[in-house]
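Worked example 2:
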Amino acid sequence: PGMWDTTGHRCDGPAHFSRMKGIIVQFIFGIALVIVLILGPYEIVTAAQKYTNEQQKVMDYVHGSPAALQNFTAAEISHLNDVKSVMTTARLVFALAVFISILAGAHLYKQNQVRKPALIASASCISFIVLLGMSMLLSFSSAFSAFHALFFSPGTWTFPENSKIIQLFPLDFFISTAKNILIAVIITSLGAYVGFKHEKTRL
């Protein structure tokens, strides 16, 4: 008596629950690692990037500085507040992903199960970034619009070419920043893939 899965293993008892627990932890670890491999390089690139004085004031604002911005329209301030909310959420997600990946990774390492999900996660990041990079090469404007449409309400992120926010952050700024982020993610993901690829399986 008892239930059996398609691999011939019994679907009841401690062994089955242990296997299921391992699969769930690997999945959670993989998702967390993907987030870390994408948002980590993003944080590093945006922090290390050189800005003009005016750009730096805006960057400080969207990163939580209480200092008020001068000479921006109400629509521009509203959009920057939306950007601040997105960036705050991204940082919270990144911090949570770091915590989960360390916790789950440590557990999987002890169980000798960390290698496979880490390889899948890093390879997935590389594939995603390559596809994203190709779409940006084909039409950066379309990719840029799709990104904004995903995070911001329609009509809240488009401004006249002579507006201050566009003058401070023209399309070339975002092209350069996106390129640096994509390169950083690929390098980080490749490093993770090679590192885990050569991780020796412990008996």
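The helical segments are 14-48, 53-62, 74-110, 115-138, 140-151, 164-168, 171-197. DSSP finds seven helices and no strands in the chain.
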